[in-house]
Specification:
By secondary structure, chain A is of the alpha/beta class. Helix content of chain A is 31%, strand content 23%. Chain B has a two-stranded antiparallel ribbon. The chains are: A alpha/beta (528), B mainly alpha (353).
């Protein structure tokens, strides 16, 4: 329990904004946190790193008053504090922005900012609230449209509303859980600029992240949790990504050239299993979300799809799995024209789908783990024979999937929403891989996973490829894409800019394509 | 130190619900006893009377079974519909439609009971289905809220029954008001005045529970109710499932009407649905989405109804009886909600990180 000295730039005698001393939090059979000490100083951005289940979320729930710790103390500005509710923590100046936003979708931005805020005027017309919101937004440097409805906003804009909500309540310590998971690179840049400005006013930020590059970029110090205990706190300047990764995982990550085929792997098929011909999609608002996309999927090949999120990837996955009807163009499965968008047709053809928002579209949260694991295979024996549903066979299947996914489940009859997000994700991925006999469409399969789990996930994809399955791998992580893909397509504004050979591709070319510049127009030797 | 001593769980364990519901019933009975004592009635005498004339005598048990029969079916109708996430508020109207259709057959078709009864049964089911057809198609193809459409059709069915029983089908033999003549066929009795509709209703409810948990169709319904988007993703034809479930729901309520006409009342009468359709909603809520739970829930509801009748014979007005019914259900609702809370002190099992 060595007391760390105040970092440079903090006036001597200033206590840390937040001190944790020996925090312990236990759940039946699980030690979520034990002996955690943490100092967060004014004017610092403190990153909290750890694998899924390392205890980061629990620790932050303790700091924000959602949980009460069984051991240890919380010290704010040198004074011991006990939070009996999240409201206590907010009053003490601790604000948290969750990974999954807690906004009322049908309300406007101004209404969301004022919701449950004791400083909101008693009688507030929309105009008054919008004016107040505009003022707050300018004061803290987070531009928002006060009169817009939250459901019409992008993820990045919604996050700004969340942050403003917290800042308006005079937070001095801002806790952000995976803030960049849903952001485009530009939005991430804006967020980081704003966080630096917030820090410059003498406030503190705790940022939970899996992305090591971002941790290196934004944080002043890094604390690493493993198995519920703190491994250490380091000055970011003394760290490098590989050292952080090694400390976090506690073991070496095996990096392999994932493009190389092992002995006996299926070769790339000569005939495409699925083809898109000039496919376009227009949404209800009349916006072209997918424009004139043509591509061929071959068995035994991984096609990577790069691009900033929201450039048509969602529509592409939905067209490829029959969830969305095309406005024009043709889709061919095994050379046969598919005349209507029917997910059942694609399921029967052996098309697996790991969707972007797994919890919303791939799971029935209130049903049991078993029922959810049977979702893809219930019509077929052994679960479905003669129109019956064999719950016992479904249980066996669920156990198999959980074993493969390395998820321990105490009770298969409990609602699947009781599992953590990471575990739900692993289960969905494994379930889909099982049925993907021809094609797997994987949208951001690594999102929200820790480094070890990402490596496992990428291994799943290459294994499928080696079995002769055509894999579509949509990701924002260029390194992952370049590691496993054979070809990489880049999406921009609903258009598939070009499909390039991954071996020959470099980050710079892809980066240009992601920004909407056609590779053929970028000439070598141009200044810069 | 912790002022907040309780934590809310996302789902309440069944055991806690049962315990708290029993506590709620006992507590509301105490309140009722207290109020009755204050207003000059003897709760002990009343309780004894109610027990004797419901659970404590053969006649009371027979009455209970007759009350349970329609409640089982309307409760199952609402529960089945709820499994796919829809509310059939129109069991009352479908009940009337089934009763009307069955009566029409009985009035128009003359023959042995063995021939007329099956036709009446089919007519009753089809009548209920016909009554929910428009809300079903509106829901499946136009997304029209089924709560409103099914509810509004109740009044039409009820008024249609009044029209028929005072107009074209009025009793020209004995001159009974707002009623058809006594039907020539009836469901045979199995035990005193309890007709075979009662065991059939029990079998239907058990059968539905099996269908929902043990068939592909049932699985698809459950997925469709829990998350329609996931159902679509899995290739389940959600629209067709909605249509089939709603028609089944209407058919069940129609069958309840046929049983009531042919087994209990033996005539079509204005107001004969006796709120069984609406009480089916209460039964379904008490059953918490499980078909098997419909049986005890219908029993509780039948007990309450039967006790109400006994109390009316003791110069307690019908509105007092309604208030008592409301109080019991209100306390049960509170008990259900409290079952979600557990003390924070000590171990709190909740998903970690």
């Amino acid at each position: 329990m060595s007391k760390q000295p105040a970092p440079a730039g903090v006036a001597p005698g200033t206590p840390p904004v937040l001190q944790l001393r020996g925090i312990g939090k236990f759940f039946p059979g699980v030690i979520a946190n034990k002996d955690v000490d943490l100092d967060v100083w004014p004017g610092e951005i403190h990153a909290l790193l750890g694998e899924n289940g390392a205890g980061k979320s629990t620790l932050m729930n303790v700091v924000t008053g959602i949980y009460q710790p069984e051991e240890g103390e919380i010290i704010l500005d040198g004074y011991g504090q006990t939070f009996t509710s999240p409201q206590d923590a907010i009053r003490a100046g601790i604000g948290m922005v969750h990974q999954h936003f807690k906004l009322v979708q049908a309300f406007t931005v101004a209404e969301n900012i004022h919701l449950g805020w004791d400083e909101a005027p008693r009688i507030a017309s929309p105009a008054v609230m919008e004016a107040r919101t505009r003022e707050i937004s300018e004061r803290f440097g987070f531009p928002v449209r006060p009169d817009a409805r939250v459901c019409d906003l992008s993820a990045g804009e919604q996050q700004r509303v969340e942050i403003l909500r917290v800042l308006a309540r005079k937070a001095r310590l801002l806790i952000m859980d995976e803030p960049t998971a849903v952001l485009t690179p530009e939005e991430t840049g804006e967020l980081f600029r704003a966080l630096r400005a917030f820090r410059a006013q003498g406030n503190a930020v705790i940022i939970i992240s899996h992305k090591l590059d971002e941790v290196m970029e934004i944080s002043d110090r890094v604390s690493i949790l493993r198995g519920g205990r703190k491994v250490g706190t380091f000055s970011t300047a003394d760290c490098n990504p590989s050292m952080l990764a090694a400390t976090m995982v506690g073991r070496d990550i095996v990096r392999r050239n994932m493009r190389a085929r092992p002995e006996g792997a299926a070769p790339i098929a000569t005939d495409p299993v699925m083809q898109l011909r000039n496919v376009s999609v227009r949404d209800d608002r009349g916006v072209d979300t997918l424009r004139d996309v043509s591509l061929d999927l071959y068995g035994g090949e991984i096609l990577g799809i790069a691009g900033v999120a929201g450039n048509g990837q969602r529509e592409l996955t939905h067209v490829l799995t029959g969830l969305m009807a095309r406005t024009s163009g043709e889709i061919l499965l095994d050379g046969n024209l598919v005349d209507r968008a029917d997910p059942a047709l694609f399921v029967q053809a052996g098309v697996g789908h790991i969707p972007e928002d797994r919890l919303r579209s791939a799971l029935a949260p209130s049903l049991s783990v078993t029922a959810n694991m049977a979702l893809r295979e219930y019509p077929y024996p052994p679960i479905g024979t003669h129109g019956l549903y064999d719950a016992q066979a479904a249980g066996v299947l669920a156990r198999d999937i959980a074993d493969l996914a390395q998820v321990t489940i105490p009770d298969f009859a409990m609602p699947i929403r009781n599992l953590s997000g990471g575990n739900q994700q692993r289960l969905v991925a494994r379930r889909e891989i099982r049925i993907a006999s021809r094609v797997l469409v994987a949208a951001y399969p690594a999102r929200g996973l820790d480094i070890g789990a990402i490596a496992t996930m990428l291994g799943y994809l290459t294994d499928l490829r080696d079995q002769g399955v055509a894999v579509v791998f949509i990701s924002e992580d260029l390194e992952d894409l370049l590691n496993v893909s054979d070809r990489i397509g880049v999406m921009f504004h609903g258009r598939l800019m070009s499909v390039i050979d991954a071996e020959a591709a470099d980050m710079a070319t892809i980066g240009l394509l992601m920004g909407g510049r056609d590779a053929t127009h970028t000439q070598p030797g141009v200044a810069q | 130190m912790a002022t907040r001593a309780f934590q809310r769980l996302p789902s309440a364990p069944a055991g806690r619900i049962l315990v708290l519901r029993l506590a709620a019933i006992v507590l509301s009975l105490c309140i009722i006893a207290g109020v009755l004592a204050l207003s000059g009635h003897s709760p002990v005498v009343l309780a004894e009377l109610i027990l004797r004339s419901t659970l404590g005598s053969r006649f009371g048990l027979e009455d209970l079974a007759l009350f349970m029969c329609p409640l089982l079916l309307t409760g199952a109708a609402v529960t089945v519909c709820g499994t796919i996430g829809l509310w059939n508020i129109g069991a009352e109207g479908q009940f009337y439609a089934g009763a009307i259709a069955a009566t029409g057959v009985a009035l128009g078709l003359h023959g042995p009971a063995i021939m007329v009864l099956p036709v009446m049964t089919i007519a009753g089911i089809l009548g209920g289905m016909a009554w929910i057809t428009v809300p079903t198609l509106a829901r499946a193809y136009a997304g029209v809220n089924e709560i409103i459409t099914t509810l509004l059709l109740n009044f039409i069915a009820s008024l249609l029954t009044y029209y028929l029983t005072t107009g074209p089908w009025r009793d020209r033999i004995s001159g009974a008001q707002v009623s058809t003549q006594r039907l020539s066929v009836s469901i045979p009795e199995m035990w005193g005045i309890v007709h075979w509709g009662f065991p059939v209703a029990i079998v239907i409810v058990i059968g539905l529970a099996l269908v929902l948990s043990r068939t592909r169709w049932g699985y698809e319904i459950r997925i469709g109710g829990a998350n329609p988007e996931a159902a679509r993703y899995a290739g389940i034809p959600v629209r067709l499932r909605i249509i089939s479930v709603m028609l089944l729901s209407g058919g069940l309520a129609g069958l309840a009407g046929m049983f009531e006409v042919a087994g209990t009342v033996h005539r079509l009468q204005g107001g004969m649905a006796n709120n069984f359709g609406y009480l089916g909603i209460v039964v379904a809520v008490l059953a918490r989405g499980s078909c098997l739970n419909v049986i005890p829930a219908a029993l509780l509801m039948a007990l309450i109804l039967d006790s109400g009748i006994v109390m009316q014979t003791q110069q307690l007005s019908a509105s007092v009886v309604l208030a008592i019914t409301g109080l019991i259900l209100f306390m049960i609702a509170i008990g259900d909600e409290l079952a979600h809370y557990r003390p924070v002190a000590g171990a709190t099992p909740k998903g970690n990180a």
